[in-house]
Amino acid sequence: MASERPDGGESAPPVDGVGDAESGRAAFVAALRVRRNATWGLAAGLALALAAFVLFVLVPGSNRSPALYVGLAFVLALSTAGLVAFLLTLGRAVRLSRRL
């Protein structure tokens, strides 16, 4: 049968969004929805960086060059994006592991 493994056991139930043609690393990334999580992480990171830039640089005014703060906002955006993407992927992995 197609659902049996060579060692005689049964394979895990199919995961949403993963076809039979995909296998290995591509199936793993698709099952964890890494692309979707990275998109949401980037959106959250950019929103937080923009809010921080407006609240701490533009509203109170600053004597220093805004270019320094743009660099800090970039670092804040990327680190937040990575953290959010990691947490979303971790949550998906936990949910999938409970289904097995």
Question: Can you describe this structure?
Answer:
With 100 residues, this protein is mainly α. It has a domain at 32-99. 67% of the residues lie in helices and 0% in strands. It is built from three helices and no strands. The protein has helices at residues 25-32, 34-58, 66-99. Helix 2 runs antiparallel to helix 3 (66-99). 10% of the residues are buried. The model has no long low-confidence stretch (mean pLDDT 83).
**Oligomeric state of this protein:** single chain
Low-confidence stretches: none
The N- to C-terminal Cα distance equals: 20 Å
- SSE pattern, N- to C-terminal: HHH
What fraction, in percent, of the residue positions are helical?
A: 55-70%
User: How many DSSP E strands?
Assistant: 0
Strand content: under 5%
Query: Mean pLDDT score, rounded?
Result: 83
- What's the overall geometry? elongated
Structural class: mainly alpha
Number of helices: 3
- CA gyration radius, whole angstroms: 21 Å
The major β-sheet equals: none
Features:
single chain; 100 residues; mainly alpha
